Every structure is written in structure tokens, then in C-alpha cells.
Amino acid sequence: MTVESTAARSASTAPTRRSGTGGKGATKGTGQGAAKGAGKGAGKKAAPAEAAPAEPAGTGSPATTSRKAAKSSTRTTGTTTRGARGQARKPRRSGQGGPDAADGPQLVQLLTPEGERVQHPDYDVDLTPEQLRGLYRDMVLTRRFDAEATALQRQGELGLWASLLGQEAAQIGSGRALRPDDYVFPTYREHGVAWTRDVDPTLLLGMFRGVNNGGWDPNSNNFHLYTIVIGSQVLHATGYAMGVQKDGADSAVIAYFGDGASSQGDVAEAFTFAAVYNAPVVFFCQNNQWAISEPTERQSRVPIYQRAQGFGFPGVRVDGNDVLACLAVTRAAAERARSGEGPMLIEAFTYRMGAHTTSDDPTRYRSDEERAEWEAKDPIKRLRSYLEREKLADADYFAAIEGESDEMGVRVREAIRTMPDPDSMAIFENVYADGHALVDEERAQYAGYLASFADSSEEGR
Questions:
Q1: Which residue, 73, 100, 155, is CA-closest to 295?
Q2: Is 446 a known active-site residue?
Q3: One of 352, 366, 382, 384 is an active-site residue; which one?
Q4: pLDDT of amino acid 193
Q5: CATH code for the part of the protein at 105-417
Q6: Active-site residue 356, yes or no?
Q7: Which end of the chain is more exposed for a tag (fewer CB within 10 A), N or C?
Q8: Which one of 75, 89, 179, 365 is the catalytic residue?
Q9: In a 3-state reduction of DSSP, which class is residue 74?
Q10: What is the pLDDT of residues 192-210, one digit of tens each?
Q11: Which residues is 421 bridged to in the sheet?
């Protein structure tokens, strides 16, 4: 359709790096943002070129395109696609192609789902065997922690849990691309990024159990507290980045959010301010295909990364299940931000393998076939296949990681046993600085409600 072809043609208009800035994140005018030159790693297969798809012969000017589009058997009205008889069509389901299809030419990939290393013309990483094994370890331990936390919630030990299952590569890759002095603004699902910032995983458990006020000191790890208000942390990140800019600090800020949050006004406002003030912020959108039960097709008519161009800064889509690609793209974007070239949007195209949270049942709105399709792209299996193929890790190494994973499971369960039960009355604290009559009234009512259970217990004796 015209919408897609127009967006594809505009993909080559992203700003390029100014002469003389140097650095590894140089943009090459491909529309894919900051980049590190390819050419490393002899023997790697070349990935498809990232150029926008060619326009069919004879399309001519935009006016010609519009006339041809008008003759099409389909027409678009607002955000609803209508057929020849004007009946509204249902949006495509995730994994069925359309503007968000992950097999398009815009996807940055360095490691295929089969674990084969490929080259990209704009992005690359040069990692030692030890660093590659470290990425594998990060993902395995993060997944084990996530599985333990999910089980603990089912056992009544946590009030809620938001699983990251399937998104390990996006989080570990981007997290390991950052420097210690960079600052991170997460959502409530960035357990993998927290791991890369050396946040003790048991502190996350205390927060979801309701027994601590946030969990950790953000200044200790440059990792902000989790944010439950959808999209609000993106504004916070932009404001913080503007402060970094005024201080003249050599650091970048990164804001994590999801495809659902991309529909929030806060995110659009953050994009505007970041672009206008050239703030050193990286917007990292984990497009996991579902905003609870809403597919991405209900969120946007164009790929999310292309929205950046409307605000005046580059965007790039990366294979979110490829830890190497996520690391390379995020590292380039952060270097670009630090060098004074402003914001960049990264769309990590991945999949939420589990439920939105433990209160959600994804089987009600998505198919087993769709999940199976994404299981074949599992990020951990992908990196393991590469390590085995290149003989960078042996059976003893993988066994050792599994043993460490089991030890983490034990530590997590032991940590829960030492935590107190949450105080029911604590929900009334820290609402107003000086107290409020309405809160006092609600506190008294709730205290009476709790006391009624004790009275019933006494009467039953």
C-alpha cells in the first residue's frame, strides 16, 4: 500500500553523523541510525542489504502514486483498512506479516535463528570468546531467576510478577552495551537489564512482595526504580538526559518501553523534547508483539522504529532475539548520544513468550502456533548453537552454567523465606507528605475490616 512504500522511501533520510565527530557509531546515511563499520570477522555470511525496497518502474511522482492508490481495490480510512464493499477488516495477527513483519529488509541481525554469524553493512561487534560466553551466562541465569519468580508468585509468595521470558537477548544485549556512568530508566519487566547493572535479583522480589520501598538505591547502579505507569519513564529519561546535557557529562541515558507504551502521549512528548533539545537519550522499545491482549497491528500502521523520522531523529529495527545485534545497535546509539548527535529510537523486534503478568492468560487471545513459531527463534538456543558451532564452549561449560543456575534457584527461594509478610496498612503510607483526612478515614475503615476477621475467628472458638 502507499503508506508502506512512502515509509520505506523515507527510510534513507535519517540524519548523518557530522564530519569530524568520529567514533564507532558513525551513521552512514542508511536510515538505520548510528553504526559501526562492517568488515570484521572473516568468513561471515553477508546479511541482506538494508536499502529501502525499490519503487516499481513507472511509479513516478507522489501524485502518480496517489492516483494509483486511489484505483486500488482497498482504501484506508483513519486507522481501519476497508475492503471494496466498505467492510472493516480485522487487523493482522502477530506473526502474519504486514508492516511489522520481522523478515523485512530493515531488520538488523548478526546471528541467525540457527546460530550462524552474518555480517551487517552498518553494525558489528568484536567480542572475545569470554565475552560471548558471558552473554550466554547472563541470559541463562536471568531466565532461571524469572522462572523462579513466576513459580513463587503462583505459590503466593509474590503479589504479581511480569515475566521477561523470550526477551532475554534484547535486555542482556542492550544492557551490556552501556557504560557504568550511563543511566537507565526501566519499565517493570527489565529484570535482565537490572542484572547487567548489578542489581541484586532478590531486591526485585522484595518489591513485588510489597515489603520494600522500591527495592534499591538508583544512584548505586544508575538504574532507576521500576515504573508501573505506562510510558511515564520515557519522559523522565528525556528530562534526565537534558540535565546530563546541561552538565556537560559524557554519558548517555536509555529509556525502556514496550509497543503498548508507544501509544501513550508521554512517549510522543518525550520524543518531541528529545529531538528539539538534541538530548543524549536512547529510546529502546521492546516490541514483544502484544500489549496485554492487543496486537501491535492495533498500535501502529507503520513499523514503530519509523515513527522516529517524524520527530526528526533516526530509528532502527533490530532482531530482538539476537543478543549480538542488540548489543551492537545499542552501543552505537549510546555512542551517538554521548557525541552530541541526539536521540535515537531502537525497536527490538521480539516476542513475549509468557503472560503479560501472572494475572494474565495469553491462551485466550493468541494461538499455540504463533508461540511455536517464536520458540524456534529462542535467543538462548541461538547463542548456544553459535558457541558450539565455533567451538567456543564445550559440554563442561554448559553443565557448569546449569549448575550455577540451580544455585541461583536455591538462593532465590531462601531469600523469600527470610522476607516478612507485607504490612496491609502500609498502603496508606507515603501518599501525602502531611497526611490527609480522606486517607485517615480510609485507613480507619480498612483497619475495621481487618479486625472483623479476627472477631469472626474468636466467635468460632
A1: 100
A2: no
A3: 352
A4: 98
A5: 3.40.50.970
A6: yes
A7: C
A8: 365
A9: coil
A10: 999 999 999 999 999 999 8
A11: none
